[in-house]
């Protein structure tokens, strides 16, 4: 044990969770966060755990959905991110959406007040030669640090572009045209069943809207940049370019919704807005990430029925996302093979999404703490959601085609005796989650009685 302090670079989901897990283990932690001294395109504040894109942690179904299972596993492990998410939950049907400001305030307060945590507002621009470090700098790794990582790995950084959806002031939405309803009335309470604002379009309105998307002024890329988008964050213009009906079968699908203003008229397409804060004063336009210029956004989005007089709290935009070719660079402990005192966590490892990023921070924090404390951490069980994800990014994925990945049941090992296909899906998913929960609980229990490593 050469250094009893864990240094974590980046105070996003992964860095915050890693810091919490290590600090709860009794390890001293320093979080190095460059904001506000060094700003990024996407961040609005200097708070820890800021949600820069959506305010949703996605499905909360821990029996039939892989991300819901990840929620469950993280809660069992005392996750700060998940506990705080539930404490500031907003109605969102079957999803876990949170009040983003209250969430980041609470994450910041919890870490700032922890006796084992200190926060340093500085930019780290190089890879250190000694100590125990976790780099969790996320999609907006600074240019200087990105160059240092590139120099160390000897490989070009891989980059794609994330797009941010706009946020609308609720009182500017015309509710004589829009209505409140979750798709298929999903949710156990009336509040959950009315978690979304829906704006309907007929065919003529939809066609005009698509034409406007296709011809709108868009942000141009700089020379040498490539627009390789992660499919889960495709700008709506890019989806429209793939075919005029693409949006109707994606974020604007009209299924499971009935317009109370015209119950006998089935909308051709529906734009949904999801509540973005606890007060219900802000709503984000679901799936409407965009690279349109600001003037074009206002012009195009106010064509949506109900949003003709919309006031925008924030318009959309695009930002770079940097990630490692982790299958070739990281070992099973998330350590940089060339410098094993350095771990990476979060989106920079090639996972996509708030929950997945925090989950990799949870693992990295526990792994680093175990090293510092001289403990032997049991291998993360591959049949758990955490295990399936870390196995994918550190060796299970094809290195030549490695791209950011959400957690999904396609990463799980098959369960013997269960049939494939859509008809067997419900039983198959329940088998995956039952097996994962048992494996995860066994892993957590083993850590409580794990022997110290030989010194």
CATH homologous superfamily heading of the largest domain = FAD/NAD(P)-binding domain
Please state roughly what percent of the residues sit in beta strands, choosing from under 5%, 5-15%, 15-25%, 25-35%, 35-45% or over 45%: 15-25%
Structural class: alpha+beta
- The number of distinct β-strands equals 17
User: What's the helix count?
Assistant: 13
CATH topology of the largest domain: FAD/NAD(P)-binding domain
Spatial shape: globular
* Global mean pLDDT: 89
Q: What is the makeup of the main sheet?
A: 6 strands, mixed
What level of helicity do the residues show? 25-40%
Q: State the strand order across the main sheet.
A: 6-2-1-7-17-16
CATH architecture grouping of the largest domain: 3-Layer(bba) Sandwich
Distance between the termini: 8 Å
Please provide a written account of the structure:
This protein is of the alpha+beta class and 455 residues long. The chain folds into two domains: 277 residues, 3-Layer(bba) Sandwich (FAD/NAD(P)-binding domain); 158 residues, Beta Barrel (Elongation Factor Tu (Ef-tu), domain 3). It contains 13 helices and 17 strands. It has a six-stranded mixed β-sheet with strand order 6-2-1-7-17-16, with helices on one face. Strands 10-11-12-13-9-14 form a six-stranded antiparallel β-sheet. The longest helix is centred in the last third of the chain and has 24 residues. The radius of gyration is 22 Å and the shape is globular. The protein starts with a strand and ends in a 7-residue tail after the last helix.
């Amino acid at each position: 044990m050469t250094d009893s302090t864990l240094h974590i670079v980046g105070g996003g989901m992964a860095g915050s969770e890693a810091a919490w897990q290590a600090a709860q283990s009794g390890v001293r932690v320093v979080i190095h966060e460059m904001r506000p001294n060094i700003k990024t395109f996407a961040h609005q504040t200097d708070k820890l755990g800021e949600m820069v894109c959506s305010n949703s942690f996605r499905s909360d179904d821990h029996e039939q959905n892989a991300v819901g299972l990840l929620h469950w596993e993280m809660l069992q492990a005392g996750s700060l991110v998940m506990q705080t998410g539930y404490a500031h939950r907003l109605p969102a049907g079957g999803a876990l959406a949170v009040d983003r400001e209250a969430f980041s305030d609470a994450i910041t307060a919890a870490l700032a007040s922890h006796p084992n945590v200190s926060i340093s507002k500085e930019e780290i621009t190089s890879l250190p030669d000694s100590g125990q470090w976790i780099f969790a700098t996320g999609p907006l790794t600074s240019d200087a640090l990105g160059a240092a990582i590139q120099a160390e790995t000897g490989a070009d950084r891989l980059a794609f572009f994330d797009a941010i959806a706009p946020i609308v002031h609720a009182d500017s939405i015309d509710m004589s045209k829009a209505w409140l309803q979750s798709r298929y009335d999903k949710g156990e309470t009336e509040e959950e069943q009315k978690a979304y604002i829906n704006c309907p379009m007929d065919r003529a309105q939809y066609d005009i809207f698509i034409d406007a998307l296709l011809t709108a002024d868009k942000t141009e890329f700089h020379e040498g940049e490539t627009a390789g988008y992660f499919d889960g964050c495709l700008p709506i213009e890019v989806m429209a370019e793939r075919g005029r009906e693409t949006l109707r079968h994606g974020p604007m699908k009209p299924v499971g919704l009935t317009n109370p203003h015209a119950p006998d008229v089935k909308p051709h397409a529906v734009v949904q807005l999801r509540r973005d804060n606890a007060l219900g004063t802000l709503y984000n336009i679901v799936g409407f990430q965009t690279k349109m210029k600001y003037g074009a956004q206002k012009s195009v989005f106010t064509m949506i029925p109900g949003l003709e007089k919309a006031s925008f709290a924030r318009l959309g935009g695009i930002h770079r996302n940097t990630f490692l070719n982790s299958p070739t660079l990281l070992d099973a402990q998330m350590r940089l093979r060339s410098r094993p005192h350095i771990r990476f966590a979060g989106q920079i490892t090639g996972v996509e999404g708030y929950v997945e990023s925090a989950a990799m921070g949870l693992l990295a924090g526990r792994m680093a703490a175990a090293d510092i404390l001289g403990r032997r951490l049991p291998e993360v069980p591959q049949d758990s959601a955490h295990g399936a994800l870390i196995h994918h990014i550190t060796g299970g994925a094809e290195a030549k085609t490695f791209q950011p990945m959400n957690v999904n049941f396609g990463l799980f090992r098959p369960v013997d005796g269960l049939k494939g296909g859509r008809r067997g899906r419900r039983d198959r998913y329940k088998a995956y989650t039952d097996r994962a929960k048992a494996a995860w609980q066994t892993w957590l229990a083993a850590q409580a009685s794990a022997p110290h490593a030989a010194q």
